[in-house]
Design brief:
2 domains; 19 strands; six-stranded mixed sheet
Length: 387
């Protein structure tokens, strides 16, 4: 049995305001090519199909195209809802699509119902169990059968025990779990949404005992946690500068007859690369060593004593895809560094920060018309950020 493990597509996401839809389409096309090249029996998509519960129409269209492309030729597709997805919306057509070899599971109550996939080259079928993201406050009481407060570890073990009960009722067969959660020991990045405050969202590797392979989603870096058996595929694209050194990839999993998993990690090599540049603005704009960054998404950290006027405009003339500008002058480093600067910034309101930035860039504070525009823009941004 050969599987392709991918996750966290976050369709509809933008990068500092720039649409990623074309790059996401290119990533999906490359995933489909790899599935065909390696003759996989099933594609596993471990959650966060979309970036938000109500995705934009173009993201939904892209996902539909992806399902058609991936399932062409009889390849099974098994996808689950992640913490960014609406469990109901993403799985509304699951009963219909399952007749065509496509499963999109959002109902935790059906986690113990496997998708049985028979290898193309013959052999016994493999039971693939789709376990969507679990919300302890909602799913805990349902799984426990009582109004209790559970941690992620506890609610995950309850769901998995139901799956193991189904496995015990069947003849012995290879089994795969597809899950979306934060497994303890995993490497994080800045672009993942926190599941809880503190560490109560962590689930131990031990909770996933008994499966031949566990295809995880949620963490954005490709990584394994129990040899090749328990692993994150990571995102197909970088979604924050904290991911700029990630090698974005998919995992091709070969399950032997005895259930032993052998894994190939295949880089996707799609999407615009990310680059962080640090130095005075004259150096960044004039040094020929930075020419290669002209096609990258750039984070510029300026070390000038004073933030230069029109800094973003000057940088954009050199780096058309610049995404982020930070100012960390030498005085800042001498007096406590970037961390102190960040704390000072966080102590100021969004309007104060926007007003200070306007003043730095224009050389004078905003007049009343400009101030009103800033207030309106911030109010609109806050409304747009509500879930």
């Amino acid at each position: 049995m050969r599987l392709l493990h991918t996750s966290d597509w976050h369709l509809g996401r933008s990068f500092h305001g720039a649409s990623l839809l074309e790059e996401q389409a290119a990533a999906i096309e490359r995933i489909a090519e790899l599935a065909l090249e390696h003759a996989v029996d099933a594609v596993l998509i471990a959650g966060d199909l979309y970036d938000r519960a109500i995705p934009p129409a173009e993201a939904v269209v892209l996902f539909n195209v992806a399902l058609a492309r991936l399932s062409a030729g009889g390849t099974a597709v098994v996808a689950i809802a992640g913490n960014h997805d609406s469990h109901v919306r993403v799985s509304v057509y699951d009963p219909l699509l399952s007749a065509f070899g496509v499963t999109i599971r959002g109902d935790v109550g059906r986690a113990q119902e496997p998708v049985l996939v028979t290898p193309r080259d013959g052999g016994a079928p493999v039971a693939i169990y789709p376990l969507p993201y679990l919300e302890p406050a909602v799913d805990g009481p349902a799984l426990a059968g009582a109004p209790v407060r559970l941690r992620h570890e506890e609610v995950t073990r309850l769901a998995i025990e139901r799956i193991h009960a189904d496995r015990r009722a069947r003849p012995p067969q290879r089994s795969v779990l597809v899950a979306h959660t934060f497994v303890a020991g995993g490497e994080t990045s800045e672009s993942e949404r926190e599941l809880t405050i503190g560490n109560v969202d962590r689930v131990s590797v031990a909770a996933f005992a008994g499966f031949d392979y566990v295809a995880l989603g949620h963490l954005h870096a490709s990584q394994q946690l129990d040899g090749p058996r328990v692993a994150y595929s990571g995102t197909p694209l970088a979604y924050s500068f904290s991911e700029q050194h990630h090698v974005k990839s998919v995992r091709i999993v070969e399950l032997a007859a005895d259930g032993t998993a052998t894994v190939q990690v295949l880089p996707l090599a799609v999407g615009r690369r990310l680059c962080t540049l640090r130095g005075p603005i004259d150096e960044l704009c004039g040094d020929p060593r930075h020419a290669a960054a002209s096609e990258a998404r750039v984070r510029a950290i300026l070390t000038d004593d004073v933030l230069p006027l029109q800094a973003m405009a000057r940088l954009r003339a050199r780096f058309p895809h610049i995404a982020e500008l930070r100012h960390e002058p030498p005085e800042l480093a001498r007096s406590g560094g970037a961390e102190r600067h960040r704390q000072v910034r966080q102590a100021r309101s969004p309007l104060q920060l926007a007003t200070a930035f306007f003043t730095d860039q224009q050389g004078q504070p905003p007049g009343e018309p400009e101030a009103e525009l800033l207030r309106a823009a911030l109010a609109a941004a806050e409304r747009g950020g509500e879930r």
